[in-house]
Specification:
about 300 residues, Probable Glutaminase Ybgj, Chain: A, domain 2, 6-stranded mixed sheet, 3-stranded antiparallel sheet, 13 helices, binds 6-diazenyl-5-OXO-L-norleucine, Glutaminase, acetylation
């Protein structure tokens, strides 16, 4: 399917792009520092399978934290919400995404929600499979079904770069293992988690996945109910309350769409029953969200009246 370039959207991208200079590309995962901080692209995928775009939507990027919504959907489908929420909570933290502090101060020491790193690590540890390869293949197959794109895979360079340097995430895994929140071998959880975060796609793929959520789990192209309605609803709710980390409250007031960001500069947004949005803009603000991506969503929300509130 061809995505049509749209002039109105291009004008919004041009305006939002002015923000890129105020942001900074993530470099705590060394391989992410190679991104071009001036990039900004957007795709809008409509429920009737049409698509509009602006910027270079062929560019691929890794999902990073956006993958947390997808791994959560998968484990909710396999275990049900009662079991999943016995390992991970449902409340926003107000802390940065990689903060360790509440693991110690909140009792029992389970992570407050699945969108922060600690919670996402527990979710990843629950992904089913007999071997490491099985678990990765299972997650990839699910994500390929969501994007209806068999070619989707992970970027080995980014995965290795994070695996080698991700000591705070390791520390959180060990902490949670001590309290029997996380089970199994920490290195295998880290291996799967870093590959999950390194799953790579372009903004059109991401917009299409957003569209699946906009349709409450039904795929716009295949018609398949890829995610049960109730699971899609839970994921969207987390996107509103925790999707933009400790900027989620302000984002909900200013923009008002369920959204999830990643430190690669990706943002997946959802306009319920209407379309999914895929944005890529690697320059980040101080909270780890795409600075121009957030601006672009703000302009889109004003122009197209997107707030769900
Ligand atoms: O675990 C990490 O730190 C990264 N793989 C993902 C963090 C992330 O994307 C936070 N997003 N804004």
């Amino acid at each position: 399917m061809v995505c049509r370039h749209n002039d109105e959207l291009e004008a919004l991208v041009r305006e939002a792009k002015k923000m890129t200079g105020r942001g900074k590309v993530a470099d705590y995962i060394p391989a992410l520092a190679e991104a071009d901080e001036n990039d900004l692209s957007v795709a809008i995928y409509y429920t009737e399978n049409t698509c509009l775009s602006a910027g270079d939507i062929e560019k691929t990027f890794t999902l990073q934290s956006i993958s947390k919504v997808l791994s959560l959907a998968l484990v909710l489908m396999d275990y049900g919400k009662d079991r999943v929420f016995s390992y991970v909570g449902q409340e926003p933290t107000g802390d940065p995404f990689n903060s360790i502090i509440k693991l110690e101060t909140v009792n029992p020491s389970k992570p407050l929600n699945p969108m922060i790193n600690a919670g996402a690590l527990v979710v990843t540890s629950l992904i089913k499979g007999k071997s490491a390869k099985d678990r990765l293949d299972y997650l990839l197959a699910f994500i390929r079904r969501l994007a209806n794109n068999e070619k989707i895979t992970y970027c080995q360079n980014v995965a290795e770069s994070e695996y080698k340097t991700s000591m705070i995430n390791r520390a959180m895994c060990y902490y949670m293992k001590q309290y029997e929140i996380l089970h199994g071998d920490v290195e295998s959880v880290m291996d799967l988690y870093t590959k999950q975060c390194a799953i790579e796609m372009n903004s059109l793929d991401l917009a299409k996945i957003g569209c699946v959520f906009a349709l409450n789990g039904k795929h716009p192209e295949t018609g398949e109910q890829v995610i049960p309605k109730d699971v899609a609803r839970i994921c969207k709710t987390f996107m509103v309350t925790c999707g933009m980390y400790n900027a989620s409250g302000e984002f909900a007031i200013k923009i008002g769409v369920p959204a999830k960001s990643g430190v690669s500069g990706g943002i997946m947004g959802i306009s319920p029953y209407d379309f999914g949005i895929g944005i890529f803009g690697p320059a980040l603000d101080e909270k780890g969200n795409s600075i121009a991506g957030v601006k672009l969503l703000e302009l889109m929300s004003e122009t197209y009246r997107l707030s769900i509130f």
